[in-house]
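Sorry to interrupt, but I need a hand with the structure work. Go ahead and set the record down below:
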Amino acid sequence: MSDLDKNSNFNPDDDPNGKILFQESTNDSDTKLTMPDSTNASSSNSNKIEIFLKAVGNAPILKRKKFLLDRSKNVKFIIEWLKKYMKLETKDHIFLYVNQEFAPSPDADIGTIYDCFKTGNSVIFYYCITPAWG
């Protein structure tokens, strides 16, 4: 039994230090991102981007699909977070694709991917457990 199974209070949105890593985007219109702390909304809004996670093949579907993420995070962060969220073992693989086109490098910054490949106000990441596209 993994440590995640033992801890019934596990919140996959939080890291062990209590910081929010992924924040659910509550906006369906994609015109404005809502922030939990309205006093810092204008200053931190430029540091957060909206990502949309879609399952492919037999990958488990997430309850929430839209998230806000710091621009400075990298693709490896999303992969590791998905593994933890889906309670996969470290040996299991998650394949991540941008816009059904390519698999980004694990060290690629989310902000750079967003700037180059955004659709509307978000970037779409497709995830799967087995390779899907080239």
